[in-house]
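Much of what follows relies on a compact textual record of a protein's fold. A record is reproduced here so that you can trace the correspondence yourselves:
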Amino acid sequence: MTSNKKIRIAIVAGEASGDLLGAGLIKSLQKRFPYATFEGIGGPRMLALGFKSFESMERLAVMGLTEVLGRVPELLRLRRRLVEYWQQHPPTVFIGIDAPDFNLGLEKKLKCSGITTVHYVSPTIWAWRQKRVFNVAESTHHVLTLFPFEAAFYEKHNIPVTFVGHPLADDIPLEMSQQAAREKLAVGKRPTLAVLPGSRRSEVERLAKLFMHAAKLCQHQLPDLQILIPAANKHRLQQIQAIAQAFPELSTHVFLGQAQDVMAASDAILLASGTATLEAMLVKRPMVVAYRVSGLTHLLVSSMLKTPYVSLPNLLANKLLVPELLQQQATSTHLAVEIMNAFHPNTAFKLHDTFRQIHQQLRCNASERAADAITKLIS
């Protein structure tokens, strides 16, 4: 069902994963509202669909409580400008995709101005700082969640919510051929480790060298080891290539994008905690999850953490499926031990069925369900 009604849809997406969600949502909304215009802040996938971005999405890609402090004045100015613009030119609906520290404040001001607001991707209030649920209730008319346990949390607090599933679960086949992926990337049949140090500049700075040192240790046991690294964008490509040059003894291939093919081509994956862990699970490859933030950020977050896990496979299974090495545990030696365990054939065999079950649970035609919920709000 389509509508000739001309509407303006404002969206702010904060990073690469938000760009992916935003692009899927725009495609689904365009089917219902062919004359709709889309504006705000988005990435290359959204721009390719005609989205008008007022600023580079990179400006919002900041991680960590202490890391963001130096950017606060800039981010507040940007948010103030967006609020003033949309108050003067009200959109039909505003959709904040992830980036809760930026978007919820924006949504609250727009909601107070009479603009319908939607928050797509729940903040991790079920994991830490649970009192933020009241801020969500004040800021948005409706929450769209990617995971069923999130929807249950909002229902418990009587906040309008729709569980939509995850677009990655829709897009990624239930089985991906390793051979086909290797042929597509033009890499051989050698033992293959995919390395994903994150999509943000600060993550790559903190993790890439550590991950490469761990891979170097693994090379002692796997002399033919090859390293495949997908870069989230051109900026990360240059950053990762510069770091990889410091490890000439490693056979390293760096790609622009193509993360799913890199994961599918691999025997094991070493990656930063985040959306990429979900992608690795959907591709059904063994993984080792690691993360480091500043000491102060870790201290603040760990004191408020309500869950024993940080990676999405473990959270969705509610048990330790894949190893998580955080902060001081994330050393090159510890990572190398876990990577070698991941290379063992039994590891992939044990994980496969559980990964497949979770994949099917999340395969809900997410972008269409999200667009349906938004359509009901603005009809």
Residues 63-67 have pLDDT under 50 and may be disordered.
